[in-house]
């Protein structure tokens, strides 16, 4: 399939970010700021490598007055004393560009941030095979440009068979009757020929050298011997001129790094008017889920993680994710999980004009056949997995836990609670009734125990200020201390006890008479502890 790349050049991007920031922070009744007037020259100031204050970005009014990027602030003030200057914030500009790239995923699952540098900020969108969903390539480009202008980010857009060709046309190509430039593999050579050599994204040193030889247009390079071009314009600090030319014409490949890995399965829907309430989102979600489940079923796949992304009309995105312990493609289960997770978590702002559902984690769904005698167990396991999915969606992944065995035989260290989602839930060690399901943490002391030396079970004891008389006892179960831990650890003898009122307890004596305690004044006598209550 022919590759189709959209290049978006965000004109004066730092200026747009600063204006949007001022708009959000301005009080409703406050008068407009001077920077809002496009007639006022405005610039953002930053420090260069030598510590001098230079112009980082400027608006069209400042450019018409003769200012340029990289000019010192002192020279700019000398030319325009009434210039409005504010400190630049490149980190905020980069964060805003990342957010805009996520918002642009409404048009393409593969959006990359343009690495060209200051003054040439932009995006790359891989729309291969997707333009027909938006009415064709010309309609898609107009939609991207108009939506960015509405969001307060003036932009130029172009489409080509390579990132280099699209990049050049977006910045130097001419629009015909207001239509953004579009190049195909058949005419890309002719479309690039009249553009200046700097449209090939070459370094300043290479550009100066090319102009010295009279090479001003890309078309001037076509008849030149390639060996001579490669030898004369090789730049050890970057990509050479011949390679950039080959990339633009499609003779050499150029990889783009998407901001986020594009999902293999996704479904989306756009609307002419923004959807401003949760009821509207909930009404459209079943259709999206059905559109996503179809390709999964066709390929024998199931989703284990889903993300619902809303594209807001103010240029932001909002998302809600759910995860499942097992892969599946049941639309009813998906909708129930999103309801449990709470669609109210979506921040709609002034409304959503697009909604996308993606399968973030996909696994094959292999058919399974259980033995007849284990059919009930399989159904129980599937029901338990569905319950874990619902509880996790409602409460959060860190609140639904299951025990996982650890390398220790000491009860409080024998297992650790971990998120249950995606794990195989096994029978708890206390399920046979010989050990409690929940342990006291820490164990509570038992007072006044009456027992036979050296290993007899207690006949009576006091716990939580209440005396208890034992009528039935089982044990001991001896657990030796772990040799790799502290040397002062002592042996434990565990007993299952039942008192006259029917209460059942799991207690242990820490320390052995005779071997670990001989009655010396400096020795610690064995002690009794309550570790849990049996069901």
Task: From the structure above, extract its key features.
535 residues; alpha+beta; four-stranded antiparallel beta sheet; 13 helices; elongated
What's the mean pLDDT score? 85
Please give the alpha-carbon distance between the first and last residues: 66 Å
Number of strands: 20
Helix content: 25-40%
Count of DSSP H/I helices: 13
> Roughly how many Å is the radius of gyration?
35 Å
Large-scale geometry: elongated
Query: What strand line-up does the widest sheet have?
Result: 14-20-19-18-17-16-15
Query: Which residues sit in consecutive blocks of at least 5 with pLDDT less than 50?
Result: none
Beta-strand percent range: 25-35%
Structural class: alpha+beta
The main pleated sheet reads as: 7 strands, antiparallel
Structure overview:
- The structure is a single chain.
- The chain is an alpha+beta fold.
- Helices cover 27% and strands 26% of the residues.
- The protein is built from 13 helices and 20 strands.
- It has helices spanning 13-25, 60-64, 73-79, 90-103, 137-150, 163-172, 188-192, 204-212, 226-232, 241-249, 278-298, 331-341, 375-395; strands at residues 5-10, 42-47, 53-58, 84-87, 111-113, 122-126, 155-160, 265-275, 301-312, 317-328, 352-364, 401-405, 415-419, 444-445, 447-450, 460-463, 466-479, 492-499, 504-510, 527-533.
- It has a seven-stranded antiparallel sheet with strand order 14-20-19-18-17-16-15, with no helix packed on it. The protein has a four-stranded antiparallel sheet with strand order 5-6-1-7, sandwiched between helices. It has a four-stranded antiparallel sheet with strand order 8-11-9-10, with helices on both faces.
- Helix 11 packs antiparallel against helix 12 and helix 12 packs parallel to helix 13.
- It is elongated.
């Amino acid at each position: 399939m022919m590759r189709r790349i959209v290049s978006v050049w965000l004109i004066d991007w730092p200026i747009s970010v600063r204006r949007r920031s001022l708009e959000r922070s301005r009080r409703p009744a406050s008068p407009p700021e001077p920077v809002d007037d496009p007639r006022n020259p405005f610039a953002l100031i930053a420090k260069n490598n030598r510590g001098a204050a230079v112009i980082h970005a400027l608006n069209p009014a400042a450019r018409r007055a003769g200012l340029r990027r990289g000019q010192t602030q002192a020279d700019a003030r000398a030319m325009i004393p009434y210039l409005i200057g504010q400190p630049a914030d490149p980190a905020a500009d980069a964060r805003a560009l990342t957010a805009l790239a996520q918002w642009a995923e409404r048009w393409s699952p593969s959006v990359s941030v343009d690495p060209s540098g200051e003054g040439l900020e932009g995006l790359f969108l891989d729309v291969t095979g997707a333009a027909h969903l938006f009415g064709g390539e010309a309609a898609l480009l107009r939609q991207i440009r108009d939506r960015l202008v509405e969001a307060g980010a003036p932009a130029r857009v172009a489409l080509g068979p390579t990132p280099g060709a699209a990049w050049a046309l977006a910045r130097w190509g001419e629009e015909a009757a207001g239509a953004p430039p579009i190049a195909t593999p058949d005419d890309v050579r002719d479309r690039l020929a009249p553009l200046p050599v700097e449209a090939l994204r070459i370094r300043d040193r290479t550009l100066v050298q090319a102009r010295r030889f009279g090479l001003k247009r890309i078309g001037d390079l076509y008849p030149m011997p390639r060996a001579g071009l490669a030898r004369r314009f090789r730049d050890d600090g970057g990509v050479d001129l011949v390679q950039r030319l080959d990339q633009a014409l499609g003779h050499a490949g150029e990889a783009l790094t998407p901001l986020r890995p594009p999902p293999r399965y996704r479904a989306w829907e756009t609307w002419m008017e923004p959807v401003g309430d949760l009821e509207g989102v909930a009404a459209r979600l079943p259709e999206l889920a059905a559109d996503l489940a179809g390709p999964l079923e066709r390929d024998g796949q199931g989703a284990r993680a889903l993300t619902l992304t809303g594209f807001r009309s103010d240029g932001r995105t909002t998302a809600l994710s759910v995860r499942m312990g097992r892969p599946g493609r049941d639309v009813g289960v998906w909708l129930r999980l999103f309801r449990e997770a709470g669609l109210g978590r979506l921040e709609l702002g002034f409304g959503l004009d697009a909604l996308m559902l993606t399968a973030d984690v996909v696994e094959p769904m292999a058919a399974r056949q259980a033995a007849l005698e284990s059919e009930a167990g399989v159904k129980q396991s599937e029901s338990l997995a569905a319950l874990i999915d619902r509880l996790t969606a409602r409460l959060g992944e860190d609140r639904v836990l299951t025990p996982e065995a650890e390398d220790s035989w000491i009860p409080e260290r024998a297992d650790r609670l971990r998120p249950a989602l995606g794990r195989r839930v096994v029978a708890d060690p206390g399920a046979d009734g010989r050990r409690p399901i929940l342990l006291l943490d820490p164990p509570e002391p038992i007072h006044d125990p009456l027992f036979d030396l050296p290993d007899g079970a207690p006949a009576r004891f006091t716990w939580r200020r209440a005396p208890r008389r034992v009528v039935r006892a089982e044990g001991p179960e001896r657990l030796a201390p772990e040799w790799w831990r502290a040397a002062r650890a002592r042996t434990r003898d565990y007993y299952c006890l039942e008192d006259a009122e029917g209460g059942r307890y799991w207690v242990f004596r820490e320390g052995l008479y005779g071997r670990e305690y001989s009655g010396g004044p400096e020795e610690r006598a064995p002690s009794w502890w309550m570790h849990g209550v049996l069901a």
